[in-house]
Specification:
Blueprint: H1 15-25, H2 27-41, E1 45-47, H3 57-71, E2 76-83, H4 90-110, E3 118-125, E4 142-150, H5 161-178
Parallel strand pairs: 2-3
Antiparallel strand pairs: 1-4, 2-4
Length: about 180
Amino acid sequence: PGEIGRDLDEGGFGNPTMNNIGVQTGQIQVQIDLSQRFASEVDNTVTFAFNSSSLSSTARAALDRQADWIKQFPEVRFRVYGHTDLVGSEGYNQRLGKRRADAVVNYLTRHGINRSRLEAVASFGETRPVVFTQAREERNRRTVTEVSGFVSDNPMLLDGQYAAVVFREYVASASAASGG
């Protein structure tokens, strides 16, 4: 579970090589840094009522903040993971986790995020609880939105918007480094 690099070798043929190149070019580190920044600047987790995939007003407010943050980075893709508590069958919880992830993706799409930037919708169901208990546990009934990579072959990256984002982030990092 806590193994460093565990996720880098998951997937199909070629992923280890692709990830090795990503590490060597710094792309993986940028992805990790952006993920950490996203989680620190907006709430990347939305919780749900028992046996529900409906978004509460609190969830919608968190997703509005996520959408605003995501819009700042047109070159970045995101993945939404759905989770459930341990109540119910594994199969049912897989489907419920997927419905929760779909609800978040649909909300973000309706609020201006291109569906192609929401790379994947996955369900972990009951397999990754925050709190291990057989009781109904709201912290386990959640979705988590994470940075998953970068958009490729997208004309938006060549229209000047990407350059503006790079410049803005460069200035922000230089200001932070100099203490100003």
